[in-house]
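ok, trying the design again with the full structure, not the truncated one.
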């Protein structure tokens, strides 16, 4: 759990250090803007942006029943964030597996990507697709889901 928060925490700390330096130099307005930028970056890289993650085995079982795709992701991945933002509300209709929190998920991604933990990896009908286009992923969501 803590590993997912490392990047957001580091971003906030870096923002605080930089803002403190600007404030001590007599520039409070740029310090506030800089801190806000770092806090926003931390927010979009936090686990809060993504739907609740489940385990790989549970996601596979649910996907088998209803046909929804499974998305393997990790915090801090800009491609995962791009996919999540571009999917909008449809993202909640997918099963999200955080590979940093689920060893089985990480193993599934390595198996699909020749040993690499390349994310996002989307599983549709048992077939892996690495970093697919958001529009394509949206098309794979069954209408009954």
């Amino acid at each position: 759990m803590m590993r997912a928060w490392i990047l957001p925490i580091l971003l906030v700390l870096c923002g605080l250090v930089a803002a403190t330096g600007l404030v001590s130099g007599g520039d409070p307005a740029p310090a506030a803007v800089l801190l806000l930028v770092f806090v926003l970056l931390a927010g979009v890289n936090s686990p809060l942006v993504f739907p609740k993650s489940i385990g790989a085995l549970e996601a596979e079982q649910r996907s088998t029943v209803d046909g929804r795709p499974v998305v393997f992701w990790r915090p801090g991945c800009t491609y995962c964030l791009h996919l999540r933002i571009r999917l909008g509300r449809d993202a909640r209709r997918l099963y999200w597996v955080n590979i940093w929190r689920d060893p089985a998920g990480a193993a599934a991604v390595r198996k699909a990507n020749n040993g690499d933990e390349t994310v996002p990896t989307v599983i549709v009908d048992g077939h892996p697709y690495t970093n697919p286009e958001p529009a394509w992923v949206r098309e794979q969501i069954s209408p009954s889901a």
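Keeping the full-length input from now on. The radius of gyration is 18 Å.
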